[in-house]
């Protein structure tokens, strides 16, 4: 929880968008999309903060986000939810991340 507060506070201060992946180690779709999520994080880490929350390790915290299925991805900016994706839809996740990155680039010009 402390890491969450520190990371999101820093992202808000820096004007970064935050993408949060709520997943579980036992979840097959979570494992299937994990590599794609890491690739996106590596590619766009300069403008987007990528976080992963294990719903079992942080069950109480995850409950406050109303997680009904894993994986669930939230897009946040300034602490507000901008978007949400439920499920391991790689193409849709890529589309959303690329859209965020392009939006961030236009905003910083």
From TrEMBL:
InterPro entries cross-referenced by the UniProt entry: Thioredoxin, Thioredoxin-like_sf, Thioredoxin_domain, Thioredoxin_H-type-like
UniProt keyword annotation of Cell membrane present: no
Disulfide-linked positions: 27-30
Membrane spanning stretches: none
Ranges where the Thioredoxin domain occurs: 1-102
Record-linked Pfam families: Thioredoxin
Record carries keyword DNA damage: no
Any one GO MF annotation of this record: protein-disulfide reductase activity
Keyword terms: Disulfide bond, Redox-active center
Family: Belongs to the thioredoxin family. Plant H-type subfamily.
Protein name stated in the entry: Thioredoxin
């Amino acid at each position: 929880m402390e890491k969450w507060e520190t990371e999101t506070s820093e992202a808000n201060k820096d004007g970064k968008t935050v993408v949060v992946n709520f997943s579980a180690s036992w979840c097959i779709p979570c494992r299937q999309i994990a590599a794609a999520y890491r690739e996106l994080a590596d590619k766009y880490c300069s403008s987007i903060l990528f976080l992963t929350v294990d719903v079992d390790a942080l069950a109480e915290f995850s409950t406050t986000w109303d997680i009904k299925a894993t994986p669930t991805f939230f897009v946040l900016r300034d602490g507000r939810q901008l978007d949400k994706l439920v499920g391991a839809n790689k193409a849709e996740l890529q589309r959303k991340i690329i859209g965020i990155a392009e939006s961030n680039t236009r905003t910083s010009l």
